[in-house]
Design goal:
alpha+beta
Length: about 90
């Protein structure tokens, strides 16, 4: 066993990383996001086959698989294939 110099904790070889556990903030964030998920009727699959976040007016970057939704009620990261009740078609230029 290696020993660390005086004043320094155990040597790195002796340190074990504790298993990850959710913190109180994680539970709070999940409750807030779950509420938003339910209010937004946010789904992980397209609606009617062609309505999805990736072709919605509020999907910030349609080239990305995950992008920011700038709808005033959501303002969160969403997936290209997701859908919510506020889906809106992108107007033709």
């Amino acid at each position: 066993m290696t020993t660390a110099p005086a004043g320094y904790g155990p040597a790195m070889a002796d340190y074990e990383i504790p298993p990850p556990e959710p913190k109180e903030i994680d539970e709070k964030n999940w409750l807030q996001l779950r509420d938003l998920l339910e209010r937004a009727t946010l789904k992980g699959k397209p609606y009617l086959g062609n309505e999805k976040c990736g072709n919605c007016l509020y999907y910030l970057n349609t080239d990305d698989d995950i992008s920011y939704c700038w709808h005033p009620t959501l303002r969160i990261l969403v997936g290209f294939e997701w859908w919510c009740q506020w889906w809106e078609e992108i107007p033709e230029a």
